[in-house]
């Protein structure tokens, strides 16, 4: 699933369509009135987390690329029908595939909390801390994926940031010290722009320290891999240098491909 920085790249690549008028609209989504789009100018292109937003005068098209979505600018995929295809008077076009397309009301500020987007100029670290402190029993592996707290963050963020700050994914938010919690919030933002820079340079995977890796680069021992938390997304972590808060009652099983979520203590 494309994470926030990838959607920022999409927004930047499509910037040339702003101010252009749609002359043709088609696709196989049942959520869109294609005829109503023709003749409408693109007022702005925005992004919130993993949502790409095409703002028109009277509505917004929200694109979510899901797990396998893709897009093409001025070209088409030969083996797939677009979910949304927008054409312009000079023959240029904007095509989206295998994604979710929804129509939203025009006032995006009512619908989105821009301060939650880790890539946004309106990002508010204090608001993120407040949301975290309000859920002390939440596992950090779930907190890092919570789009209401860290919009745009995904599984790569989770694995890389928790490795950076040396926190075990089964730690609870309430068990982290104030300093460690601030470090978590700070590094989620820092990693967002590291991701963006590396993605643009086509070297993102070369900078992964934990995600999909087998050996901890700090301890030179095997990483544990497990499906953790409510989301059951893959976690890669080192049981030596990533501390669990509070400590686990029993050690994690080495080499496990699926690990049940430890029940947090009652607050």
TrEMBL record:
<dbReference type="GO" id="GO:0003684">
    <property type="term" value="F:damaged DNA binding"/>
</dbReference>
<dbReference type="GO" id="GO:0016829">
    <property type="term" value="F:lyase activity"/>
</dbReference>
<keyword id="KW-0511">Multifunctional enzyme</keyword>
<comment type="similarity">
    <text>Belongs to the FPG family.</text>
</comment>
<keyword id="KW-0378">Hydrolase</keyword>
<feature type="region of interest" description="Disordered">
    <location>
        <begin position="248"/>
        <end position="267"/>
    </location>
</feature>
<dbReference type="Pfam" id="PF01149">
    <property type="entry name" value="Fapy_DNA_glyco"/>
</dbReference>
<keyword id="KW-0255">Endonuclease</keyword>
<dbReference type="InterPro" id="IPR012319">
    <property type="entry name" value="FPG_cat"/>
</dbReference>
<dbReference type="GO" id="GO:0008534">
    <property type="term" value="F:oxidized purine nucleobase lesion DNA N-glycosylase activity"/>
</dbReference>
<keyword id="KW-0234">DNA repair</keyword>
<protein>
    <submittedName>
        <fullName>Endonuclease</fullName>
    </submittedName>
</protein>
<dbReference type="Pfam" id="PF06831">
    <property type="entry name" value="H2TH"/>
</dbReference>
<feature type="compositionally biased region" description="Polar residues">
    <location>
        <begin position="253"/>
        <end position="267"/>
    </location>
</feature>
<keyword id="KW-0540">Nuclease</keyword>
<dbReference type="GO" id="GO:0003906">
    <property type="term" value="F:DNA-(apurinic or apyrimidinic site) endonuclease activity"/>
</dbReference>
<keyword id="KW-0238">DNA-binding</keyword>
<dbReference type="InterPro" id="IPR010979">
    <property type="entry name" value="Ribosomal_uS13-like_H2TH"/>
</dbReference>
<dbReference type="InterPro" id="IPR035937">
    <property type="entry name" value="FPG_N"/>
</dbReference>
<dbReference type="InterPro" id="IPR015886">
    <property type="entry name" value="H2TH_FPG"/>
</dbReference>
<dbReference type="GO" id="GO:0008270">
    <property type="term" value="F:zinc ion binding"/>
</dbReference>
<dbReference type="GO" id="GO:0006284">
    <property type="term" value="P:base-excision repair"/>
</dbReference>
<feature type="domain" description="Formamidopyrimidine-DNA glycosylase catalytic">
    <location>
        <begin position="2"/>
        <end position="95"/>
    </location>
</feature>
<keyword id="KW-0227">DNA damage</keyword>
<keyword id="KW-0326">Glycosidase</keyword>
<keyword id="KW-0456">Lyase</keyword>
């Amino acid at each position: 699933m494309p994470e926030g920085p990838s959607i920022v790249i999409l927004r930047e690549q499509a910037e040339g369509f702003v101010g252009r008028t749609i002359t043709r609209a088609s696709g196989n989504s049942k959520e869109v009135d294609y005829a109503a789009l023709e003749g409408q100018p693109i007022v702005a292109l925005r992004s919130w987390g993993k949502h790409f937003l095409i703002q028109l005068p009277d509505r917004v098209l929200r694109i979510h690329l899901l797990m396998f979505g893709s897009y093409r600018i001025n070209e088409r995929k030969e083996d797939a029908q677009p979910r949304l295809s927008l054409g312009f008077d000079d023959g240029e076009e904007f095509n989206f595939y295998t994604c979710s397309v929804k129509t939203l009301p025009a006032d995006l500020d009512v619908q989105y909390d821009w301060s939650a987007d880790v890539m946004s100029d309106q990002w508010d670290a204090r608001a993120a801390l407040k949301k975290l402190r309000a859920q002390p029993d939440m596992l950090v592996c779930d907190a890092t994926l919570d789009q209401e707290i860290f919009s745009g963050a995904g599984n790569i963020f989770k694995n890389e940031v928790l490795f950076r700050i040396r926190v075990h994914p089964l730690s609870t938010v309430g068990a982290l010290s104030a300093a460690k919690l601030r470090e978590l919030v700070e590094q989620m933002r820092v990693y967002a722009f590291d991701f963006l820079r590396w993605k643009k340079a086509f070297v993102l995977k070369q900078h992964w320290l934990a995600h999909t890796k087998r050996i901890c680069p700090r301890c030179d021992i095997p990483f544990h891999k497990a499906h953790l938390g409510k989301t059951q997304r893959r976690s890669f972590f080192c049981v030596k240098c990533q501390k669990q808060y509070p400590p686990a009652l029993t050690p994690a099983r080495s080499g496990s491909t699926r690990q049940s979520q430890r029940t947090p203590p009652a607050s």
